[in-house]
Write a structure and sequence with these properties.
By secondary structure, this protein is mainly alpha-helical. The protein has three domains: 19-105, Orthogonal Bundle (Fumarase C, Chain B, domain 1); 110-197 and 223-355, Fumarase C, Chain A, domain 2; 362-459, Fumarase/aspartase (C-terminal domain) (Ribonucleotide Reductase Protein R1, domain 1), CATH 1.10.40. Helix content is 61%, strand content 5%. The chain is elongated. It starts with 14 loop residues before the first helix and ends with a helix.
């Protein structure tokens, strides 16, 4: 197979080297973007009278025919042609003749691949945003349904204070909202048109780069030809954003795995997103959550791979950059798969309402309220903390599971100014609704956040 660069070489490429250097087995997924960019480039060449209008039309017809061949499965990619670009160009010349060779005028595979990846990543970012919005809406719907569900809130994985389940779910909505913002912001760095940078120094033809940018809907054109072909920041930024997103999903997965266990019993995951055991008939395993948690490390690895790839590359293009796409493609595929499954898992989950009696015996959740009661009556908080700690110790020693089980006389023995109204502070509902500060877990504040998110999701 004749190489596009073979003019100065006397020996044919070793077969092992051909296999080693080929990328077409994975970069063929860029075919639609490669053809889209080539059509825009071809039209620009005709507009600038670098090639004839009739030649441009012939090339465009040939490119559209190739697109149909690929989409129908009739196109055969050849590893000897190295990459998606040369496979398409070779077939184009077969279809339209030598005029097909004019398509590459004024460009290099260096700026061509940058264009393809930017078009691809722009599209996939929007697809990920669509899946993220689907998940956000499912999470919001569950939050609306669980405003009056109260669960133990945890710090250090120890029961701490009661919170509304909706408040807990809205915390993840805040995280995922930041993820969406980061991805949209990343688009500003993705949406830059590199074609015209050629190999590294810019094209030696009077190209109309603004026209190509307009055809391909790029709002900005690259400003430096060397940076244009050597830059992978936009891919690294995407993988970093994807890693943060996956970290958020993984944190939620960890809680869903715990919450679905009988020891917690806060949620039941749908049969559609769980699996059974091959030996234990009673099992219902949270595999969707566990797999998402595991795949997070894979996305992290892709980010580190790209950072390591770029850390010592001199300007401008180096063949090392061929290795950037597998990490990017795998990140895109993994994030999309996880979001699709996670959205369905959340939408179909049944969050359970925990009986108040169970909450009252769940690790002295109202202890902070007792300390606050004392502080509100002039006791320095550190002293109030100590008094409450002694009350908790007395409960533990005497086998009582809640501070409300202590008598007023026992409390007065610790601090003589305790009154009967202390027991109003020690109810689960009262404890939650006293957190009536903006961003708190009181019902009034949670409803404010639900209204806020309803507006945000509607605007999105």
């Amino acid at each position: 197979m004749k190489k596009p660069w073979g003019g100065r070489f006397k020996k044919k490429t070793d077969s092992a080297m051909e296999r080693f250097s080929a990328s077409v087995d994975y970069d063929q997924r860029l075919y639609a973007y490669d053809i889209e960019g080539s059509i825009a480039h071809c039209k620009m060449l005709a507009k600038c009278k670098i090639i004839a209008a009739a030649e441009s039309k012939k090339i465009v017809v040939g490119l559209n025919k190739i697109r149909k061949e690929i989409e129908s499965g009739r196109f055969v990619f050849d590893a000897a042609l190295e990459d998606v670009h040369m496979n398409i160009e070779s077939r184009l010349i077969e279809i339209v003749g030598p005029v097909g060779g004019k398509l590459h005028t004024g460009r290099s595979r260096n700026d061509q691949i940058c264009l393809d990846v930017r078009l691809y990543l722009r599209h996939e970012t929007c697809e990920i945003q669509r899946l993220l919005q689907r998940l956000n809406r499912a999470l919001f719907a569950q939050a609306k349904k669980t405003v009056d569900h109260i669960i133990p809130g945890y710090t250090h994985m120890q029961r701490a204070q009661p919170v509304r389940l909706a408040h807990h779910l809205l915390a993840y909505l805040e995280m995922l909202g930041r993820d969406a913002d980061r991805l949209w912001d990343n688009l500003k760095r993705i949406d830059v048109m590199p074609l015209g940078a050629a190999a590294l120094a810019g094209a030696g033809y009077p190209l109309d780069r603004a026209y190509v940018a307009k055809l391909l809907k790029f709002p900005e054109i690259s400003h430096n030809s060397m940076d244009a072909v050597g830059d992978r920041d936009f891919m690294i930024e995407f993988c970093a954003n994807a890693s943060i997103l996956m970290m958020h999903l993984s944190r939620f997965c960890e809680e869903l795995v715990l919450w679905s266990a009988s020891e917690f019993d806060f949620v039941e995951l749908s049969d559609a997103f769980t699996t059974g055991s091959s030996i234990m008939p009673q099992k219902k395993n949270p595999d969707a959550a566990e797999l998402t948690r595991a795949k997070t490390g894979r996305v992290y690895g892709n980010l580190v791979s790209l950072l390591a790839l770029m850390k010592s590359l001199p300007m401008a293009y180096n063949r090392d950059l061929q290795e950037d796409k597998e990490a990017l493609f795998d990140t895109v595929d993994t994030v999309k798969d996880c979001l699709e499954v996670f959205g369905g898992m959340i939408q179909s989950a049944r969050f359970k309402k925990i009986p108040v009696q169970r909450l009252e015996s769940a690790g002295f959740l109202t202890a902070t309220e007792m300390a606050d009661y004392l502080a509100e009556r002039g006791v320095p908080f550190r002293q109030a903390h100590e008094i409450t700690g002694k009350a908790v110790a007395l409960c533990i020693e005497s086998g009582r599971q809640s501070l409300s089980e202590l008598s007023l006389a026992e409390l007065k023995a610790m601090w003589p100014k305790f009154k009967a109204d202390i027991f109003d502070y020690l109810t689960i509902e009262g404890c939650v609704d006293r957190k009536n500060v903006y961003g708190g877990t009181a019902r009034k504040q949670v409803m404010k956040q639900i209204a806020r998110w309803e507006r945000k999701l509607k605007n999105n």
